[in-house]
Amino acid sequence: DDMIIALAERYMSINCACFTPNHGRIDDIKRLVEEYKADGVIDINLKFCSLYDIEGYAVEKTLKEAGIPVLGIETDYNDQDSQQLRTRIGAFVEILNS
Q1: What is the full DSSP assignment across 3-41?
Q2: For residue 46, is pLDDT > 90?
Q3: What is the pLDDT of residue 16?
Q4: Closest Cα to residue 88, out of 67, 76, 77, 72?
Q5: Residue 38 has pLDDT above 90, yes or no
Q6: For domain 2-97, which architecture applies?
Q7: Which residues, at least 6 apart from 75, have a Cβ–Cβ distance to it below 8 Å?
Q8: How sure is the predictor about 19, in pLDDT bands with cuts at 50, 70 and 90?
Q9: What is the mean pLDDT of residues 19-40?
Q10: How far apart are alpha carbons 74 and 57 in whole angstroms?
Q11: Percentage of residues in the chain with pLDDT exceeding 90?
């Protein structure tokens, strides 16, 4: 029984968009930015995952309101957009370094 309870507690503590509304995930992102002194956040969402897409809007809005630079990216499991992602991330890093 203890193992099942521990497993259930672990699954329920995962910050995933499927547990919406998920203010804890957004709070954790802000906490991690402060803890690691991050210059910005790259929020990656998988295409066709409606929950992450919807929550991505809230993540970006909250981070921008907190003055934290954020780049929202939507991608999938193939590498067809790798050059485009490289360009977008490179531009974001340049903005952070300026």
Answers
A1: HHHHHHHHHHTS--TTSSS-HHHHHHHHHHHHHTT-S-E
A2: no
A3: 72
A4: 72
A5: yes
A6: 3-Layer(aba) Sandwich (3.40)
A7: 44, 45, 46, 47, 81, 85
A8: low
A9: 87
A10: 12
A11: 49
Residue in the block written with tokens 């992102």: 29
Distance CA 31, CA 87 (A): 28
Q: Do residues 45 and 73 lie in contact, with contact meaning Cβ atoms separated by under 8 Å?
A: yes
DSSP state string for 42-98:
EEEEETT-HHHHHHHHHHHHHHHHTT--EEEEEE-SSSTTHHHHHHHHHHHHHHHH-
Task: Enumerate the domain spans of the chain.
Answer: 2-97
- At 48, the amino acid letter reads F
